[in-house]
Design goal:
With about 230 residues, the chain is α/β, with parallel strands linked by helices. It has helices spanning about 15-25, 50, 60-70, 90-95, 125-140, 165-185, 190-205, 210-220, and strands spanning about 1-5, 30-35, 75-80, 115-120, 145-150. It contains 8 helices and 5 strands. Strands 2-1-3-4-5 form a 5-stranded parallel sheet, sandwiched between helices. The structure holds flavin mononucleotide.
Length: about 230
Protein backbone atom coordinates (compact mmCIF):
# COMPACT_ATOMS: atom_id res chain seq x y z
CA UNK A 1 0.00 0.00 0.00
CA UNK A 2 1.38 3.39 -1.00
CA UNK A 3 0.72 6.24 1.40
CA UNK A 4 1.37 9.93 0.76
CA UNK A 5 1.22 12.28 3.72
CA UNK A 6 0.76 16.00 3.21
CA UNK A 7 1.66 17.72 6.46
CA UNK A 8 0.13 21.18 6.78
CA UNK A 9 3.11 22.38 8.83
CA UNK A 10 6.85 21.94 8.70
CA UNK A 11 7.41 20.92 12.33
CA UNK A 12 6.88 17.53 13.95
CA UNK A 13 4.25 18.15 16.61
CA UNK A 14 1.02 16.40 17.58
CA UNK A 15 -0.51 16.45 14.09
CA UNK A 16 2.60 14.97 12.52
CA UNK A 17 2.68 12.24 15.20
CA UNK A 18 -0.94 11.29 14.49
CA UNK A 19 -0.44 11.14 10.73
CA UNK A 20 2.71 9.05 11.12
CA UNK A 21 1.03 6.76 13.65
CA UNK A 22 -1.73 6.00 11.15
CA UNK A 23 0.75 5.49 8.33
CA UNK A 24 2.78 3.12 10.51
CA UNK A 25 -0.30 1.04 11.27
CA UNK A 26 -1.12 0.88 7.56
CA UNK A 27 2.33 -0.62 7.14
CA UNK A 28 2.95 0.63 3.62
CA UNK A 29 5.44 2.66 1.64
CA UNK A 30 5.29 6.22 2.95
CA UNK A 31 6.12 9.46 1.13
CA UNK A 32 5.88 12.67 3.14
CA UNK A 33 5.73 16.35 2.28
CA UNK A 34 5.87 19.17 4.78
CA UNK A 35 4.28 22.54 4.01
CA UNK A 36 5.55 25.17 3.52
CA UNK A 37 9.01 23.49 3.60
CA UNK A 38 8.37 21.43 0.47
CA UNK A 39 5.84 23.75 -1.16
CA UNK A 40 4.90 27.20 0.06
CA UNK A 41 3.97 29.19 -3.01
CA UNK A 42 0.78 31.27 -3.01
CA UNK A 43 -1.61 30.93 -5.92
CA UNK A 44 -1.14 34.07 -8.03
CA UNK A 45 -4.75 34.00 -9.26
CA UNK A 46 -3.86 33.97 -12.96
CA UNK A 47 -6.54 31.25 -13.66
CA UNK A 48 -4.31 29.81 -16.40
CA UNK A 49 -4.80 26.34 -14.86
CA UNK A 50 -8.57 26.62 -15.40
CA UNK A 51 -8.53 28.32 -18.77
CA UNK A 52 -5.45 26.98 -20.57
CA UNK A 53 -3.50 24.24 -18.75
CA UNK A 54 -2.20 23.51 -15.26
CA UNK A 55 1.25 22.99 -16.83
CA UNK A 56 1.55 26.76 -17.29
CA UNK A 57 1.07 27.48 -13.58
CA UNK A 58 4.21 29.32 -12.41
CA UNK A 59 4.53 26.72 -9.63
CA UNK A 60 3.84 23.64 -11.75
CA UNK A 61 7.38 22.22 -11.65
CA UNK A 62 7.77 22.75 -7.93
CA UNK A 63 4.40 21.10 -7.26
CA UNK A 64 4.94 18.16 -9.63
CA UNK A 65 6.65 15.74 -7.16
CA UNK A 66 3.73 16.16 -4.73
CA UNK A 67 1.14 15.72 -7.50
CA UNK A 68 2.93 12.60 -8.68
CA UNK A 69 3.12 11.13 -5.16
CA UNK A 70 -0.59 11.78 -4.58
CA UNK A 71 -1.48 10.19 -7.92
CA UNK A 72 0.57 7.09 -7.11
CA UNK A 73 -0.78 6.71 -3.57
CA UNK A 74 -3.51 4.31 -2.48
CA UNK A 75 -4.09 6.46 0.58
CA UNK A 76 -3.60 10.22 0.87
CA UNK A 77 -3.27 11.55 4.41
CA UNK A 78 -3.80 15.29 4.77
CA UNK A 79 -2.91 16.48 8.25
CA UNK A 80 -3.08 19.98 9.65
CA UNK A 81 -3.06 21.58 13.06
CA UNK A 82 -6.03 23.88 13.62
CA UNK A 83 -5.07 27.51 13.18
CA UNK A 84 -7.90 29.91 14.05
CA UNK A 85 -10.53 27.23 13.39
CA UNK A 86 -9.16 26.23 10.00
CA UNK A 87 -6.21 24.53 8.34
CA UNK A 88 -2.84 26.25 8.30
CA UNK A 89 -2.24 28.89 5.66
CA UNK A 90 0.32 26.55 4.08
CA UNK A 91 -2.27 23.78 3.65
CA UNK A 92 -4.80 26.24 2.22
CA UNK A 93 -2.36 27.64 -0.32
CA UNK A 94 -1.41 24.08 -1.30
CA UNK A 95 -5.06 23.15 -1.86
CA UNK A 96 -5.64 26.33 -3.91
CA UNK A 97 -3.22 24.92 -6.48
CA UNK A 98 -5.54 22.02 -7.23
CA UNK A 99 -8.70 23.98 -8.02
CA UNK A 100 -8.37 22.84 -11.63
CA UNK A 101 -8.69 19.23 -10.45
CA UNK A 102 -12.13 19.77 -8.94
CA UNK A 103 -14.90 17.82 -10.64
CA UNK A 104 -16.28 21.07 -12.04
CA UNK A 105 -13.07 21.25 -14.12
CA UNK A 106 -10.70 18.34 -14.82
CA UNK A 107 -10.69 15.66 -12.11
CA UNK A 108 -7.93 13.04 -12.17
CA UNK A 109 -9.58 9.65 -12.64
CA UNK A 110 -7.13 7.86 -10.33
CA UNK A 111 -8.70 9.78 -7.43
CA UNK A 112 -11.99 7.87 -7.67
CA UNK A 113 -10.39 4.65 -6.40
CA UNK A 114 -8.32 6.19 -3.62
CA UNK A 115 -8.89 6.61 0.10
CA UNK A 116 -8.05 9.83 1.91
CA UNK A 117 -7.82 10.73 5.56
CA UNK A 118 -8.13 14.29 6.88
CA UNK A 119 -6.55 14.67 10.30
CA UNK A 120 -6.51 17.73 12.49
CA UNK A 121 -5.49 18.45 16.04
CA UNK A 122 -6.40 21.49 18.10
CA UNK A 123 -5.75 22.64 21.63
CA UNK A 124 -9.52 22.73 22.18
CA UNK A 125 -11.76 23.30 19.17
CA UNK A 126 -11.97 23.83 15.43
CA UNK A 127 -11.23 20.31 14.16
CA UNK A 128 -14.56 20.04 12.35
CA UNK A 129 -14.03 23.15 10.24
CA UNK A 130 -10.34 22.36 9.65
CA UNK A 131 -11.16 18.84 8.48
CA UNK A 132 -13.88 20.26 6.24
CA UNK A 133 -11.29 22.54 4.61
CA UNK A 134 -9.36 19.45 3.50
CA UNK A 135 -12.32 17.12 2.91
CA UNK A 136 -13.96 19.68 0.59
CA UNK A 137 -10.97 19.26 -1.70
CA UNK A 138 -10.81 15.47 -1.50
CA UNK A 139 -14.55 15.27 -2.26
CA UNK A 140 -14.36 17.64 -5.21
CA UNK A 141 -11.21 15.88 -6.49
CA UNK A 142 -13.43 12.79 -6.66
CA UNK A 143 -11.61 10.75 -3.98
CA UNK A 144 -13.53 7.50 -3.47
CA UNK A 145 -13.61 7.52 0.32
CA UNK A 146 -12.58 10.21 2.78
CA UNK A 147 -12.30 9.68 6.54
CA UNK A 148 -12.05 12.57 8.99
CA UNK A 149 -10.34 12.45 12.35
CA UNK A 150 -10.06 15.42 14.65
CA UNK A 151 -8.98 15.54 18.26
CA UNK A 152 -8.56 18.23 20.89
CA UNK A 153 -5.19 17.32 22.38
CA UNK A 154 -5.40 20.05 25.05
CA UNK A 155 -1.78 20.89 24.38
CA UNK A 156 0.47 22.87 22.07
CA UNK A 157 3.13 20.17 21.76
CA UNK A 158 3.11 16.35 21.50
CA UNK A 159 5.19 16.01 24.68
CA UNK A 160 2.50 17.82 26.63
CA UNK A 161 -0.31 15.50 25.45
CA UNK A 162 -1.45 13.27 28.32
CA UNK A 163 -0.72 9.54 28.25
CA UNK A 164 -4.44 8.84 28.49
CA UNK A 165 -5.08 10.89 25.37
CA UNK A 166 -2.18 9.27 23.55
CA UNK A 167 -3.62 5.84 24.33
CA UNK A 168 -7.01 6.92 23.00
CA UNK A 169 -5.41 8.24 19.81
CA UNK A 170 -3.49 4.99 19.39
CA UNK A 171 -6.72 2.98 19.62
CA UNK A 172 -8.54 5.30 17.21
CA UNK A 173 -5.69 5.08 14.69
CA UNK A 174 -5.70 1.29 15.00
CA UNK A 175 -9.43 1.20 14.18
CA UNK A 176 -9.07 3.65 11.31
CA UNK A 177 -6.16 1.70 9.82
CA UNK A 178 -8.27 -1.47 9.97
CA UNK A 179 -11.13 0.22 8.08
CA UNK A 180 -8.73 1.44 5.41
CA UNK A 181 -7.13 -2.01 5.06
CA UNK A 182 -10.56 -3.65 4.75
CA UNK A 183 -11.54 -1.34 1.90
CA UNK A 184 -8.23 -1.72 0.07
CA UNK A 185 -8.64 -2.73 -3.56
CA UNK A 186 -12.38 -2.17 -3.72
CA UNK A 187 -12.93 1.54 -3.20
CA UNK A 188 -16.04 2.83 -4.92
CA UNK A 189 -17.10 6.48 -4.92
CA UNK A 190 -20.20 7.34 -2.91
CA UNK A 191 -23.64 8.03 -4.40
CA UNK A 192 -23.03 11.71 -3.58
CA UNK A 193 -19.83 11.71 -5.67
CA UNK A 194 -21.52 9.90 -8.55
CA UNK A 195 -24.46 12.31 -8.48
CA UNK A 196 -22.17 15.30 -8.46
CA UNK A 197 -20.15 13.83 -11.32
CA UNK A 198 -23.40 13.38 -13.25
CA UNK A 199 -24.34 17.05 -12.77
CA UNK A 200 -20.85 18.11 -13.87
CA UNK A 201 -21.15 15.82 -16.89
CA UNK A 202 -24.35 17.58 -17.99
CA UNK A 203 -22.51 20.87 -17.69
CA UNK A 204 -19.55 19.60 -19.72
CA UNK A 205 -21.89 18.32 -22.43
CA UNK A 206 -23.11 21.90 -22.77
CA UNK A 207 -19.44 22.95 -22.56
CA UNK A 208 -18.98 26.21 -20.64
CA UNK A 209 -15.16 26.11 -20.47
CA UNK A 210 -13.50 24.75 -23.61
CA UNK A 211 -10.37 23.37 -21.86
CA UNK A 212 -12.54 21.34 -19.47
CA UNK A 213 -15.02 20.27 -22.15
CA UNK A 214 -12.22 18.92 -24.36
CA UNK A 215 -10.79 16.98 -21.38
CA UNK A 216 -14.17 15.41 -20.56
CA UNK A 217 -14.76 14.49 -24.20
CA UNK A 218 -11.30 12.91 -24.53
CA UNK A 219 -11.88 10.86 -21.37
CA UNK A 220 -15.16 9.69 -22.87
CA UNK A 221 -17.02 10.91 -19.77
CA UNK A 222 -19.53 12.88 -21.82
CA UNK A 223 -20.28 9.49 -23.39
CA UNK A 224 -20.45 6.15 -21.60
CA UNK A 225 -17.05 6.07 -19.82
CA UNK A 226 -16.82 6.74 -16.10
CA UNK A 227 -13.73 7.29 -13.91
CA UNK A 228 -14.71 4.35 -11.68
CA UNK A 229 -15.15 0.63 -12.28
C1 LIG B 1 -1.60 30.32 14.97
C2 LIG B 1 -2.28 29.28 15.80
C3 LIG B 1 -3.66 29.24 15.84
C4 LIG B 1 -4.31 28.28 16.61
N1 LIG B 1 -5.67 28.23 16.60
C5 LIG B 1 -6.32 27.32 17.35
C6 LIG B 1 -7.75 27.26 17.35
O1 LIG B 1 -8.45 27.95 16.62
N2 LIG B 1 -8.33 26.35 18.18
C7 LIG B 1 -7.61 25.54 19.00
O2 LIG B 1 -8.21 24.78 19.75
N3 LIG B 1 -6.26 25.54 19.00
C8 LIG B 1 -5.59 26.41 18.18
N4 LIG B 1 -4.22 26.42 18.15
C9 LIG B 1 -3.49 25.37 18.87
C10 LIG B 1 -3.11 24.18 17.96
O3 LIG B 1 -4.15 23.88 17.05
C11 LIG B 1 -2.85 22.90 18.72
O4 LIG B 1 -1.92 23.11 19.73
C12 LIG B 1 -2.39 21.79 17.79
O5 LIG B 1 -2.52 20.55 18.45
C13 LIG B 1 -0.95 22.01 17.36
O6 LIG B 1 -0.56 20.95 16.54
P1 LIG B 1 0.99 20.68 16.26
O7 LIG B 1 1.58 20.18 17.54
O8 LIG B 1 0.99 19.65 15.19
O9 LIG B 1 1.57 21.97 15.83
C14 LIG B 1 -3.56 27.36 17.39
C15 LIG B 1 -2.16 27.40 17.33
C16 LIG B 1 -1.52 28.34 16.56
C17 LIG B 1 -0.01 28.36 16.50
Amino acid sequence: MKITIIHGQSHQGSTCHLARMLAEKLNGEVTEFFLPRDFGEDCVGCTTCFEVTEAKCPHYTKLSPITQAMDEADVIIMASPVYVYHVTGAMKTFLDHYGWRWMVHRPEEKMFSKQAVCISTAAGAGMKSANKDMADSTFFWGVGKTYRYGIAVMAVSWDAVSDKKKQRIEKNMERLAQKIQNRKGHVRPSIKTKLFFHVMRQMQIRGWNETDAVYWREKGWTGKNRPWR
